[in-house]
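User: Hey, quick favor. My workstation is busy. Could you predict this chain's structure for me?
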Amino acid sequence: MARFKRILLKLSGESLMGEQRYGIDEKRLGEYAQQIKEAHDLGVQIGIVIGGGNIFRGLTGAGKGFDRVKGDQMGMCATVINSLGLSSALDAVGVKSRVFTAIRMEPIGEFYTKWKAIEAMERGEVAIMSGGTGNPYFTTDTGSSLRGIEIEADVMLKGTRVDGVYTADPEKDPTATKFSEITYDEIYNRGLKVMDLTATTMCKQNDLPIYVFNMDIYGNLLRVLNGEDIGTLVHN
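Assistant: No problem, here it is.
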């Protein structure tokens, strides 16, 4: 029996690069699809939001002279590309999925509404929700918080390249220690960065827990759903 009935899986665009410096690594994409299939086979209803940092990040573009609004719109398009790639990879392993977009771009994807996404998940399809919130100045972290709240997910599973939340950045500080669980208030008081402040506050206010784990290790998604303590639970 899976630990959660309905999840919002937040995937990093950068992780899709795998060993590459840009774009989508087909091997990593295939591993993600296979892990999602394993979760789907447990009967878990799955909604997914993917970042676009492997292709274009709006905030980085703004720092290089791009207009911020246009830069964020380019980043939204990058998330659509990643979502289409994941949808294709899921098709290849026999899992039906539906790509939703926050801005209208039929026939590339179906325009997102909460009810259409829930209906898709209840039919056994994976709902891939792209385009962020559809608005500039919001990250895909905020987009995933919003979608997780809207689809009434039990938890947001934040798949990263780090295996949880630490007292400091473990890639920079070898003395950093990992939390098994931590409250939102502790996150604020310690100044820790799980997601951006807007996204974290939305989850706190709407009582959506976040489970941070390393998605890049094959099998970890299934381990989380089976209740293994391999990451960090953030909650009220």
